[in-house]
Amino acid sequence: MSYSNKVIDHYEHPRNVGALNKDDPSVGTGMVGAPACGDVMKLQIKVSDSGIIEDAKFKTYGCGSAIASSSLVTEWLKGKNLDEAQMIKNSQIAEELELPPVKIHCSVLAEDAIKAAVANYRSKH
Amino acid sequence: MSLKLPIYLDNSATTKIDPRVLDKMMPFLTEEFGNPASRSHSFGWTTDKAVEHAREQVASAVGADSKEIIWTSGATESINLALKGAASFYQDRGRHLITIKTEHKATLDTMRELERTGFEVTYLTPETNGLIDLSKLASAIRVDTILISVMYVNNEIGVIQDIEAIGSLCREKNIIFHVDAAQAIGKIDFSLEKLPVDLMSFSAHKCYGPKGVGALYVRRRPRIRLLAQIHGGGHERGFRSGTLPTHQIVGMGEAFEIAKTDISKELPRIKKLRDNLLTGLQSIEEIYVNGDMKHRVPHNLNVSFNYVEGESLIMAIKDIAVSSGSACTSASLEPSYVLRAIGRNDELAHSSIRFSLSRFTTEEEIEYTVRLLNDKVAKLRDLSPLWEMFKDGIDVSSYEWQEHGERDIILHN
Ligand SMILES: Cc1ncc(COP(=O)(O)O)c(C=O)c1O
Fold it and tell me: Would you say the CB of residue B178 lies under 6 angstroms from ligand 1?
């Protein structure tokens, strides 16, 4: 399996690894995937009073492309409002990271993780 | 001494050719180019003599007679010839065959093909240590069972089956016994004079010989008959037609002779390295060794690193060349069927690494490997939500995961 330089960069220097307090009302948490399928992504967003994502953290169990996809979206999410966040499409992630067809599911999972985190935040408000 | 990276620890996939083997092969790639089937001049006589010498070397390495050795293109072809050739010859006796779920694909796919042509096959599940329970094998035998095929050494987990006991059972029941010994040469010291085996498949490239050559042992007493699968000029007494690749065969002969003479000094050295590796990895939490540790060749260590995904681990340890049971590293999307068959769950199968050592592996290489694994597993666990859950006392296996549908993938593309 050969990876694009962007995947390798995110994999070797993942951005925004970590956890936010999931019980904090300003935090939305999304966990998607399943260990049996080989990928689990946990994505967390911290939303300001004005509805802007001011922080994002992730932890991912999965292949290099899954780690890179989730690392990339934490960068993209910061500064966006929730509606903008939900417009991020897996195809944009796949394109940015130059994912091969067998790795498209990693980008789909990252998109799902965003949706799940936003839904979780909204369910608190 | 400085280490050369990457470190090769994937010797179950293939081995580096031994320089002593290459030396013997070279003349047959240059001056000695004759066709061993040419009877009318010295070019042919010379290469024919070399081929027959190699046949003696292979035969004596495994305790056989040279007339019992047929050259093939590798273990895959040997297995095909053994299973298809015997099944079709003996089909009037019965049409039932038995094998094990952890066999190499060369056996499993050949069995599938035989099923398509009207044979019935039982695929036995081994115990969780990878070994066969003899009583389960005995109870799978039917009146119409004509052949049993079991591998000597498993290529993924290195476990050694009790070939002598299985062979005796086959003799008692008058069943033909084929053994895939591709991974056994130079790792187990055995002799077909004593082992009750009828057909045995060999490969050169798993024991420091060249790729693309192998052999099939066909017992003469009691005599085993086969129907040829490749037809042509009647080479190899009609069992396998095709011009013999002299240089490959010469290499295989030399590799087998070296394997036999060096085994007693090699095994203790490799075992010590493997034990160092295991001890070094045991300082990592939540690791699981796959396959029995006692009935196992010292060349193999297969370990699952829980809560770390296999492909990302392979990527993290790219300074060493190893195999993984992860789905991502194979063409299929399934994790290792061998680990699944011994009862490992998908997660542990995905996170397994097979380290396979060779006569060229050094102590420094193992030290480096131990350090690298300790480092990188810790790093990946910092990144793993599953590790976080485990540390928080959440049971990852009973958590309700939302599995992903194929449908979404299609919709967005
Ligand atoms: C146990 C076993 N059987 C058969 C084979 C096939 O051998 P060859 O590559 O010589 O066809 C291999 C190697 O991949 C093996 O490990």
Answer: no
